[in-house]
Specification:
Structural class: alpha/beta
Radius of gyration: 28 Å
Number of strands: 28
Number of helices: 17
Strand order of the largest sheet: 8-9-7-10-11-6-12
């Protein structure tokens, strides 16, 4: 009997910004073992790369086809649910499928290291098939303090573990992950609980991933990349502090882990619980549209907290640079004398944010960026707030050689320095990224926004905002929401009085703001956004362009804008503008803003238009739902 070998072809995607599925022939020795979910070695141009098989075929349209050079996995390590989720992420965030897969995998898997076990090799439903068996997805939102929503977590976890299902918990930072890990471990000492994040050693991360693949994890806690973790029997996703920074990926495909969690819950048909320390506009809108149900929250009564507006204009130009008004000084003195605690909120780094020559006006800026250098007194350095570049302090102007360098403005270091002068008898502490160990016997705390993301949650008799106006000084449609949430956060930490220093008091004098009626404030904000066609009623996307040559990058942005504008009337496309900062790490930057009702349609349009768009010396990326 003669056996005829039928040539098979593997559909392979690569971790490159090329949105194609490539055909490769399967040599006979690989044909028996290769299937969707396996890693393979392939030749691509002059490079040898690792690719991911997404399917097999008996036909191909390619005449001169290359063979797969090596088969890394004899059993698939990526199951149908993982492939479906990464394809959905690719479609939404306008990236290649291969980029989405590699963003979801540990470094060791991407490098082709061997993966033990074979949990993913089992025949398994795709996520959409599993979701079809459970079409009603419970989505809940809990707002409050950690001890409040941790109780809710445990109630939901108990139900899932009782059905022998696993749980995925996302947290925004490693510190919060570790805190949750300790709490969960104490609550469920007999369960298999693991902690994962990208800074683990390569072999350690890979070993943990293998455990998850093989169903050896009951509860997995991790940062944003854990949203893709291959838990074959997943029954619940919890997203902790969804309103925190840290969930947005900073490289292609620029995914938002909260959105990936929502997408995965929907695809797999499992419950989703989100928590936040205060209401965001997104939470309010989701509850209003009945997309989520609210668990056990009542608005905290903040009417006990008086709000005092201090108009800095009344003190004239002579005291235009003052940090603390006489009103604030007086109230701080009285609080200290009464043995009470006070908070000074100042969301600026360093000592002075502006350094310039008084003779020629030259401004000291980063050598690699367009950002000004910030004077950090403690480090005795000039630091770029955008890229972190550091430079020794200058005594002579590099432009005119005059010895007239002046440092202006104020940051948290200057606030602490002046507080020490005004209140030498008080114990003053600082809470920011660099200083998080706070003794309990302090009297005055100077803090940045880190206080809202810290485990330290003291109560203050009075709180004071040194410069609230700076919140509104950036060009961002989210400014009002950020302002409301900032004031809400400060009032929730305050027992008696919140003092706001401002030069535009009329901006804050409406009753809804002073009473902090979030329902009315958010309703007004949603009405305005609907009229202007802004999220959550539309989707925004940035096409970012960067290059070493200013004119070449600008011309590429203008050329791409004209091309896109001529190809579509369905989407709003705005002329390119300089990014902020306009130069970062040696690259000049522009972006084109696009607005659409349907993000998937916009992504599909951009993939088609950008497929063969190349500009010499210019790098182009797409960021959907930018933050």
């Amino acid at each position: 009997m003669t056996f005829v070998f039928l040539m098979k072809y593997a559909k392979v995607v690569l971790g490159l910004p090329v949105d194609e599925v490539f055909d490769y022939s399967l040599p006979e020795q690989f044909s028996k073992y290769c299937s969707a979910g396996c890693r393979v070695g392939v030749s691509f141009g002059k490079r040898n790369l690792i690719g991911y098989v997404t399917g097999l075929s008996l036909k191909t349209k390619i005449s001169k086809i290359k063979p797969i050079s090596r088969l890394i996995d004899i059993k698939p390590i990526l199951d149908g649910r993982f492939l479906e989720l990464t394809k959905a992420v690719s479609d939404y965030y306008c990236s290649s499928w291969g980029q989405a897969i590699e963003a979801a995998l540990p470094v060791g898997v991407r490098k082709g290291m061997p993966v033990g076990g074979g949990g993913a090799a089992k025949e398994c439903e795709t996520a959409s098939q599993q979701g079809a068996n459970n079409p009603v997805v419970l989505k809940e939102w809990v707002v409050g303090k950690l001890e409040e929503y941790f109780e809710v977590y445990c109630q939901r976890i108990d139900l899932v573990l009782a059905r022998n299902k696993s749980v995925l918990i996302l947290a925004p930072e490693i510190k919060q992950c570790a805190q949750l890990f300790n709490l969960i471990k104490a609550k469920y000492p007999d369960k298999r609980i693991e902690l994962t994040y990208r800074k683990l050693k390569v072999k350690e991360e890979l070993a943990l991933w293998e455990k998850a693949v093989n169903g050896c994890v009951d509860i997995l806690i991790g940062t944003r990349a854990a949203a893709f973790s291959p838990l074959p029997n997943l029954g619940l996703i919890i997203i902790d502090r969804e309103d925190s920074y840290g969930y947005k990926e900073e490289q292609a495909p620029y995914y938002q882990a909260v959105e990936v969690g929502r997408l995965r819950a929907r695809l797999e048909g499992i419950p989703l619980v989100l928590s936040s320390q205060s209401f965001s506009l997104g939470a309010y809108y989701g509850l209003k549209e009945k997309e989520y149900s609210l668990i056990g929250h009542t608005h905290e009564d903040l009417s006990r907290v008086r709000v005092t507006l201090v108009d800095l204009k009344q003190y004239g130009k002579k005291r235009s640079g003052m940090l603390f008004s006489p009103v604030m000084e007086d109230k701080l003195n009285k609080a200290i004398a009464a043995g009470k605690k006070a908070l000074i909120f100042i969301n600026r780094k360093g000592y002075c944010p502006f350094a310039h020559c008084q003779k020629c006006g030259f401004v000291l800026s980063c050598d690699k960026c367009s950002s000004r250098l910030i004077f950090h007194f403690e480090a005795k350095k000039l630091v770029c707030g955008s890229c972190g570049f550091k430079k020794d302090l200058l005594k002579i102007c590099p432009n005119c050689n005059a010895q007239y360098i002046k440092y202006s403005g104020f940051g948290i270091e200057k606030a602490v320095s002046q507080l020490s002068l005004y209140f030498p008898q008080a114990k003053i502490v600082r809470l920011d990224k660099e200083h998080q160990d706070i003794p309990p016997d302090f009297q005055i705390m100077a803090a940045t926004e880190k206080i809202f993301h810290s485990d330290i949650r003291p109560r203050f008799a009075i709180s004071a905002v040194v410069d609230l106006d700076s919140v509104l000084n950036t060009v961002d449609f989210r400014n009002n929401e950020r302002l409301y949430r900032l004031i809400y956060g400060l009032r929730s930490l305050t027992e008696e009085e919140l003092i706001i220093q401002t030069r535009i008091p009329e901006q804050y004098q409406n009753k809804e703001f002073l009473d902090l009626d979030l329902n009315k404030l958010f309703e007004g904000e949603l009405k305005e956004r609907k009229e202007l066609g802004l999220p959550p009623y539309t989707h925004l996307t940035h096409i970012n362009l960067r290059g070493k040559n200013l004119e070449r990058t600008r011309n590429a942005a203008l050329g791409l804008y004209e091309k896109l504008k001529s190809q579509s009337e369905e989407f709003e496309i705005f002329e390119p503008v300089e990014a902020i900062p306009s130069k970062l790490r040696g690259n000049f930057r522009f972006y084109i803003l696009l607005k659409a009702m349907n993000q998937l349609e916009l992504s599909k349009f951009l993939k088609k238009q950008l497929k063969k768009t190349r500009y010499s010396g210019v790098i182009l990326t797409v960021d959907a739902d930018p933050e």
